[in-house]
């Protein structure tokens, strides 16, 4: 063999030994010595998913080497640790590979009415991710609004279905950092100075919509983020891991929904740090939303016309103006003294409200002949019903908060057993005791994406809307209260008002 040929062959062998093995996993062996060490971004990523992030440089280096080796060698690493997989993919400019992973990822959706439900989501069915801002509320923790993420979930696996996905509100999900209040009444001092777990909580979109626009008189703005389809799938998987792994210390004014969401998005969105306007960070949710809205990361054009945005599902106004308009319409047709305000209408007893209609011949005739005015009157009664039901739930919660909860449930179960009400006992267990346990208990923390064994204790959604069963449970709780307990009298009054309001609605219909 000529010397030149031997030289070329030797060079090829050395090339194979030193670098061509990177064809199996390109970025791993092509990295410089610097990239074999953790950077500041890795430290930030570890804070999102580790119970106790590495405390010093030595621990951080060791942890980095362990994760880097696992990422290099394990085929399903991205399935178990999508956040770290996303970090390495971004750092070494190689796409994260989820082809070997399950088609779905789990989220535990909290719901004050049924405790919660385990829901499996196909990342490929998410057509877009929005920043969801709720305007200022009356509570201390919502003084500057609230900010979260809204996942636009398509009705099938086709994430390109466009408008069909936007209208599929029943399956949309909301993910937001909140303080997990492990007691029935919030302690403001713990909220300000720490003591509640910070957690990326998941909710059904319609539950968030109902709470904000119907109960709390807040507007919601849904701002689309500019993300490609492959980015969306990766981010959804990463958010699922953060949901099951991140636990911090929530503080209303320093470590809140805005600061924690900024920390998360800065790690999960590749172009986030390239926006100078976002580098300083924001403590207030409204300030953070405004900065994102004015940045290239979001498509703010959908909000230029709020009326059109409301029709398209990007703006959800509080329902209070509609109720006030309904009251104004009804008052225009009253010949007797009208209700002076929505609050005055709400305070009036159900019987008094119905008598005011029956004894007003002009209004009664208009309701009979004009469906528009009748619907306005119905809307007012439905508003009262919503408020009364919430007040009743609050009264029962206050009673339980002032009692030995376990003892109350034992006595309630024993009372129902004496009456041989097996179905009601099951309803009590599924729709009261289990939800309360879930709401008060600390959600278990997974090591990576949770597997079937970890999720075995999480139940699917419960059907807890039966008004007859709820009334039986309320009566059972009432019987357990001392006769002179003000909460017993209040809950009895509210239950009676709910029943009469439902009769008003039936009469109007």
Radius of gyration using CA atoms only: 28 Å
Major sheet characteristics = 7 strands, antiparallel
Please indicate the percent range of residues in DSSP E strands (runs of 2 or more): 5-15%
* Average pLDDT rating: 84
Give the number of helices.
23
Q: How many angstroms separate the termini? A: 100 Å
Helix percent reads: 40-55%
Oligomer: single chain
Q: Could you walk me through the main structural features you see in this protein, from its secondary elements to its overall organization?
A:
The structure is a single chain. With 509 residues, this protein is of the alpha+beta class. It folds into three domains: 29-101, no CATH class; 105-316, no CATH class; 320-508, no CATH class. The protein contains 23 helices and nine strands. Strand 1 (105-111) and strand 2 form a beta hairpin. Helix 17 (361-369) crosses helix 18 and helix 18 (371-401) packs antiparallel against helix 23 (486-508). The longest helix is centred in the last third of the chain and has 31 residues, at 371-401. The chain starts with a helix and ends with a helix. The relative contact order is 0.09.
What is the topological layout?
Layout: H1 3-18, H2 26-30, H3 40-49, H4 57-73, H5 77-80, H6 82-91, E1 105-111, E2 115-121, E3 126-134, E4 146-153, H7 163-166, E5 173-180, H8 188-193, E6 196-204, H9 205-215, E7 220-224, H10 229-245, E8 248-250, H11 257-268, H12 285-293, H13 306-312, E9 315-316, H14 320-331, H15 342-347, H16 350-358, H17 361-369, H18 371-401, H19 405-418, H20 422-440, H21 452-455, H22 467-480, H23 486-508
